[in-house]
Amino acid sequence: MQAPQKTTVIFWTAVIMAVALLAGCSTKKNTAATRNYQAFITRYNIYYNGDEHYKETLKSMEENYEDDYSQLLYAHPADARSNSNAPQPQGDFKRSIEKAQKAIQLRSIKKRPAKKAGKGSDPAYKAWMKREEYNPFLHNAWMMMGRSQYNNGDFLGAASTFYYIARHFSWLPNTVTEAKIWQARSYAAMGWDFEAENILTKIPEKSLTSQKLKTLYNLVSGSYWVRTKEPFKAIPYLEEALRHSKGAQKSRINYLLGQLYTRKGNKKAAYNAFKQAAGSGASHRTQLNARISQSEVFDGADIKPEVKALKRMARYDRNKEYLDQIYYAIGNLYLSRTDTIKAIENYKLAAEKSTRNGIEKAIAQLALGNLYYNRREYALAQPCYTEAIPLLPENYPGYDSLQLRSDVLDELAVYAQNVELNDSLLRLSEMPREQQLKIIGAIIDTLKRHEAEEAERIKREEYLAQQAAQGNNNMQGSANAPTTFTINTDDSWYFYNTSTRNAGKTEFQRRWGSRRLEDDWRRRNKATFSFSEFESENNDDTDSPDNENETETTAPADSSETARANDPHYPEYYLRQIPSTPEEKLNANEIIQEGMYNVGLILKDRLNAISEAATEWDKLLSRYPDNIYRLEVYYNMYLMYMRQGNKNLAERYRQLILRDFPESPYGQAMRDPSYLDKLRNMEADQEHLYEQAYRAYLNNENDSVHNALRHMQKKYPLSKIMPKFMFINALSYVTENQPEKFRETLKQLLERYPETDMTELASAYLKGLAQGRKLHSGATNVRGMIWDMRLGNDSTEVSTDSVMFDLNPQDRQLLVLVYPTDEVSANQLLFDVARHNFSSFVVKDFDLEQMNFGRLGLLLIKDFANFEELSHYRKVLQQSPYLQLPPQVRPVMISVKNFETLIQQGRTFEDYFRYVDQQAAEQPVTAAPGSMEAGNDERRQYGSAIINDISGTGDNEENEGSEYNEQ
């Protein structure tokens, strides 16, 4: 019995001692024992689990992250969290953060140790006593929390954590250095480049005392410089970081170095870096992309082994989804040897074999489109760019220039396709019928074969779609109908087949809309401009008897012949398109001339492609020496060569203009020996002349406006702003009450300049006159500026009844600032008025609202209780040192009720002004039922103020007693 009793005593003694020991190791005590105990518990009971989770999650992130190889790689996957458009890494470090927070909360020792006698003068002891943390292991928990916050994408939280560490653990220099490096990394991820660079440059090299710190510093510095405008500065840092990297990170940094070497032009170093990136430890995806990138920088003597290796890769099933990249790489190799034929062949295969329809396909399409573009095969380049651009992210290098080229090719392709088609038709028209039928027969056979292949493809894809519906959700269907316009590239001729004809029709309607068959169908603003719409409605002819007779006497065509003529499976379909008469051949040649001229013009004006434009126009002049575009070609060639500084060639085209077109506006301009000097300064001089003319117009100096136009036509007959001169010249005829001159001037404007900012307004005026509307001349030219602009949208029904306004000065009022949107900045005006209101009025607040009706812009200043408040505001506005309204801005005082009438009925300000004019000469109307009765004198004053504002004269009478105070 004694042995069990002894054991029990020992057990309880141990328990009591353990409890006493634990009580003595509380964080509220600071002794050597408590510090070591808390460090031990922190390390093995809390930190260990968080650290293991951190290392496992980080390893998984680095190994499984799918880098975007079309962009410069991130030096580490966690850096990608700074860009939401980049592929995002997987992995959540929340558990590590929680463990770190738990350790800090439970195991931190803040209490200072007991003072020791005789140590007060010891600097080391003083520093020891000033510490803010006495758990010797807790800084590791702080560092784990900061790193976890960074890897989770909480860069601001991470920066704050590392800043705290650097400030509060100063006795641990290595920890402080590491924290500062991570702090700089966090700043760089947030885009705080100055702060990041400032920290990195201030870290002395001697403070990097371990290989771990050196590797971290080099990685962070390299990552920082890669994202700046000087990415090549990253190379030495990444090379150093690479030496001590391993696994997926080693492959990633090698690939990034290869990209940087490529951009720097060091193909050999890039090739070797990509080779290292594709090492045995790399993923299959990395190996494949590295192999592709090697093809882009290969500069060896013989490409056959490289091509053979890539073709061998294409045979493996595991590379089936990467065939687009493999054939793209083969195309790159052939292109490096300037074998464009085989390069095009493989780029086509890359696009055809693409199953992912992602950026890989876009890159292959861009390479193909660029080759076609350089070969000046614009009709073939256009669908490549059209298909590629939507697949690219907006941060893709050179995205804006690629988008511009795609947009321009959309225009170029229309004319280029017309040239190619009519060239083919003309060549075919010169052949004997037997040869025509032979070629047509071959085309029909090809069409039938393609249709059979297409039917087989559809069946196959329907089967695959059924399989996918049964559970294979990863299978992507590709049976979408083609959406790009393709053409037959046969060297002998050109025709549409069924699919391309239908695709062309769809593409036409997408780009141009549903258009009537008429002249000028391509006009951009066709909906608002057609000369036939400017004729009087009384002149519109109904179907004439001749037309009726023609319709009645037209014999119906044989239905079978008609069917064959519309079916591409029969020769009649093609034969009917071949020009046979002199008129049809002349029309085909005119289309070719138009296409060649416009291709050159678009290249010059939209892409600044001078040599390409010159080539197109040289071909046009060589093939059609007497074409109708000669004058325009000569002048554009003159301008191009002047821009290049080639005065000899420029002078050649100047002399051609003087010789062949001496009486043209260009010829008259070229006679001036100082024309070249004027050409350099003409833009500023023209703008100055227009400002003078516009001021004269606003000041009702109509003779000066007419003289300004005549002066411009003589001095600068080719001016780009000539339409503006013609427009204000036409408007000046309004106050002179000369409708015929007004009409004729606008028609001349539209005939000479059919696509300008003035077109919409000028055509609207002419339509109004054609519909029988009368020209109402106002008291001033400012009235003409806003003539006939109705305040409503296209769906607003315009009332034809006479309109009544209530000129009650006690109604709530608005001040409407009216201005032409093409001459006054709406945003600047809004800012200036808001600043004036804020600076001039303390109590009263005015709402501002912007409205647009075509060229007419409105800024509404609201919340005036009555005319008295509005008059006071106008007085303060006139005297304001903060705001001087531009001369093009005219204020209109109007009640809320009357303005709503204008909007709801689609009326114009001219309707309102005429009514005010009439009421000023007649007895004032009585107040509306239910409104405050206003005296006749008050109404006259109200009407006078409105007229004065319209006429540009202000009311300087003082108005006291308003409800708001001035500052």
What does this structure look like?
The protein is mostly helical. Helices cover 62% and strands 3% of the residues. It is built from 40 helices and four strands. Strands 2-3-1-4 form a four-stranded antiparallel beta sheet. Strand 2 (848-853) and strand 3 form a beta hairpin. Helix 16 (340-353) packs antiparallel against helix 17 (359-374), helix 26 packs antiparallel against helix 27 and helix 27 (630-644) runs antiparallel to helix 28. The chain starts with a helix and ends in a 16-residue tail after the last helix.
How does the helix and strand content classify structurally?
mainly alpha
Overall radius of gyration: 40 Å
% residues in beta strands: under 5%
Number of β-strand runs: 4
- Mean pLDDT reading: 79
User: What overall geometry do the principal axes of the alpha carbons give?
Assistant: extended
Task: Give the strand order, joined by hyphens, for the main sheet.
Answer: 2-3-1-4
